[in-house]
Amino acid sequence: MVARAPVHRRGHVHQALFYDSDDELLDAVVPFVEEGLKATEPTLVALNDRASDLLREAVGHPDLIFLGGRTRRHDPASTIRHHRELLAAHVADGARHIRVVGETPHPGHGSPWDWWARYEAAINHAYAEFPLSNVCPYDRRITPGAVLEDVMRTHPWLAADDGAHVANAHYEEPRRFLLGRPVSADPLETTSPPRFELLDPTPAAARRAARACADLLPADAVDADDVVMCVNEAVTNALTHGRSPVRVRLWCSADRLVASVADRGAGPPDPFVGLLPAASRGSAGLGLWMAHQMCSHVTFHRTEDAFSIGLVFDARDGGR
Amino acid sequence: MDATTTTRHKGLLRSRTASGDTQTAIDTWYRAAVERGQRICTVGTLPLTGTAAARETALDPADLHPSAEPARLVQRALGDGYQGLGVLIHADEVIATTSERFHDAVETALTDLCTDHPVEVLCVYDRPGVGTDCLDLAVEHHEGDLREEQLTVRRTTDVVHVAGEVDMTNLDVLDTALRATALARGRRLRIDLSEATFLSAGAAHVLHRHAAVLRQAGAHVELHGAAPPVARALQLVELSLRSPG
User: Fold this and answer.
1) Domain spanning A187-314 has what CATH number?
2) For A87-110, what is each residue's pLDDT tens digit?
3) A280 vs B: CB within 8 A
4) What are phi and psi of A59, to 5 degrees?
C-alpha cells in the first residue's frame, strides 16, 4: 500500500491510510515522504514517538520535519489553528505543494474520539485552500471499529493497495457528517447522579454551580476558572440560540468533571462550530472555540428535538 | 468635571429578576445620605427596605428640570439645617410621565447640582425597562459610577474601570459604556480590569472590538491589570481575531 500525492490536483487531498503492521506503514509512507523530499516540497510528519522513530530511521533525511512538543495535537481547535498558520507560512515561503503524514488521536492512543472525528470532517473545509497532500495513518491493530467507520466517512480519498489513491465511496460531505452525528454519553453521566442540576439558570447561577463542582475535586485537579468559563459559554449559547428548558448538569469524580448543557433547540447551525477560529462567526462560535481549547474533550449531541454539549475536564493532564 | 463630582451622581441599573443586590444598593445609598445629614428627595416610588431615619420629600420631575432652578432646593435644605440634598430618582417613572428628552435635561441638571453643591444623586433605571431601552442615557449621565447587579463601570478622563462580572445579561452595559468612551476620549485610554472577575467570550470580544476602533482612530489603548482567567479569555479572543476561520 503506497500513499502517493495525487498529481495535477490543487487544494487539500485528504487520504486515510489503514495499516496492520509497521512494515505496512513504512511501505506506504516512505515513498510518499521521499517523493516530497526529492521535489523539495515541505514534508511534515506528526506521528507517535515510536512511528516517528521508525520513519526517521527509514528515511534519514535532514529536511523531513517532525512535528512534536508544542505542535503535538492536544485539541482539534488549536491543532487547526496551528496547522493553518504552519501551512500558510510554507505557502508564503513559496511552497507549491506540501505533504503531511499526520496521525489523529483516538481511544487506541488513550484519547477521546468525538471531537477528533469532527476534526477529520472539518479539515476538508479548513485546509481546503492549501496545496496539501495529507495522509492520515490508522493502525488497525489499535483503532476501534467505530473510529474506523468515522474515518471512512470523513476522508474523500483512500490509499489503495495498488499504490495509488482512490476516491472513497463512503465519504460524506462534512456538513452532513457533522450535523447528523450521535454521541454516546460520558461514563460518568451514566454511572452516577449529577452533583448539580439546574433548569433555565442565569449564566451567573450556572457559573456558581460550575465553581462549586470544581471545588469538590482535589485542589488543582482541574482549572476551576476554565470550568466556569466553558459552562458559561455553553449556557449562554443555549439561552441565546437554543430553546427552553435549558438544563445544566454537573458530575464529578476524584479526577474528572463533566458538564452537560442541553436545550430543546436544533443546536448551532454551523457544522464547524467550536473547531474554527470564530471571530467572524458570532459569539456562539467564539465561546465554543474557546471551550475546545480549555476542555479535555467537548462533545456535541444532536437529536431531532434537542441539542446538548458535553464538556469534559480530566485531572490527569491538569484539566486539558 | 473631576472624579469626585461624577461619583456623587450615581446610576443604578436594577434588574427586575435580580437577587436583591440592587435593592441593597438603594438601601445603602439611602442610609449613607441620611448619615450625611442630607434631606432625602425622591422622584417616583422606590421601595426602601432600610429603616427610614428621615422624612422623604416627594418631588415632581419638573422640580428638577433646569427651568425650575433646582439649586433652590439645596438652598432651602441648607436653610432648614440639612447638610445638603440626597436625590433618589426612578428614571422609568420620570420618562413615563414626561419624556426621554425631559429626563435627559433633569439628569444634566442633577450633574450640575452635584458639581456645585453638597448633593448626592442615585438614579435607578429598571432592566427590562429604560435601563435597557434608554441605556445610552444611563451611561452618558453616570460616567463616574454606573452599577448593575454584577458589574460596575466607572469612567474618568483617561480610565475606564470595569469591576465585577460581564456576561450575556449585562454585555450591553459594557458595550454602551465603551462606545460612549470611544466617542468622547482623547488619545490615551486605560481600560482597568484589575477588579474584573469574569469576562465571557462575548465580553472579551467587545473589549477587543472597541480597543481596535479606538486604536484605528489613533488612540493608545491599554488593557490593564487583568487577572489570569480574564487575561486568558482576552488572549484567546485575540487569537481568534488574528486568524478568522
Assistant:
1) 3.30.565.10
2) 999 999 999 999 999 999 999 999
3) yes
4) -100, -50
Interface test with B, best of A280, A290, A292 (most B CBs within 10 A): A290
A64 contacts A45 by C-beta, under 8 angstroms: yes
- Picking from A256, A262, A261, the residue whose alpha carbon sits closest to that of residue A213 is A256
- How many whole angstroms separate alpha carbon B60 and alpha carbon B130? 19
| 3-state class (DSSP) for residue B163 | strand
Shortest distance, CA A126 to any CA of chain B (angstroms): 8
Residue A229 is nearest to which of B17, B233, B240, comparing CB atoms?
B233
Q: What is the pLDDT of residues A143-198, one digit of tens each?
A: 999 999 999 999 999 986 655 689 999 999 999 999 888 888 888 999 999 999 99
| Most B CBs within 10 Å, among A241, A289, A292, to test the B interface | A289
Q: Which residue of B has its CA nearest to A125?
A: B245
Encode A113-124: b = buried (16+ Cβ within 10 Å), e = exposed.
Answer: bbbbbbbbbbbb
CA–CA separation, A260 vs A258, rounded Å?
7
Contact B210, B183 (CB under 8 A): no
Order of strands across the sheet that contains B56-58: B56-58, B38-43, B84-90, B119-127, B9-15, B146-147, B151-155, B159-166, B188-199, B220-224
Q: Does A111 touch chain B (CB under 8 A)?
A: no
Q: Where are the domains of chain A?
A: 12-179, 187-314
Homologous superfamily assigned to A12-179: P-loop containing nucleotide triphosphate hydrolases (3.40.50.300)
CATH class given for the domain over B150-245:
alpha beta
